[in-house]
Sequence to fold (293 residues):
Amino acid sequence: ESHPVIGYEVVRAVKQGANLVIIDPRRIPLVDHASLFLQPKPGTDIYVFLAMAHVILREGWADAAFIAERTENFDEFTRAVEGYTPELASLMSGVPADLIEKAARIYALGEKHATRDLRLETAGAQSPISDLQSPSRGRSTILYAMGITQRSNGTEMVLTLANLALLTGQIGKPSTGVNPLRGQSNVQGACDMGALPNVLSGYQPVTDEAKRRAVAQVWGLPDLPPTPGLTIVEMMHAAVDGKIKAMLIMGENPMLSDPNLSHVEQALRSLDLLVVADIFMSETAALAHVVLP
Fold:
């Protein structure tokens, strides 16, 4: 819903034969196009991801060559997920164990619709990397949005998804990878274009002299500032401290979306000039000296 263009591409991929696995505590509209829908109880999806890793190791679906060449601490990881069986994950999340196993297989092997059985019987969960076989596989990608990150264990969730990609070698090739999406589609585009305090267009760090000068040359400038700017939270502190005197806020409502709203209000009221450009008279616009509707 928040990314209609990417959502359309997902639906189009399904129509061309891709499997779509959705893991979500809600039944969202995209489920109508899914090959598999796993509906965990809120806050329990980490068990599903860990159990998927367990199944991938147990069934020999890991990419042995990729793991050997590109990863570290594989043995430690294997020990860590050993106890997270599909049965345990089912008990914790409410997702049937057989659906977790199917999701693991579809993701690990990049299966399309109606593919043959590629299950390997030779490798077990305790097999060292040298004994693992790399099954033939298609390509899989992970898409996730704010439901994963805006949680108390958001960092662990993201790392677990990254481990799934590393475990199966589903990264670094077209149609693979771990692809985080922003809360709204225009946030994604704005960040892609460099509307972040520490990067230029295409996420090139302002601290990287070569990349900074390359961008400056394209823009017809001798150089660009090498110092990262302030984040939203840092800007609010700077406004309270009198270090920022004016703000232009465009299409954003920090008086609704930012943490510690009393502090945000104090910051915005401390400004000499607050200009808000928005299509609505938002809570932030109500504090503005000038509103550009």
In short: The chain has 13 helices and nine strands. The mean pLDDT is 90. The radius of gyration is 23 Å.
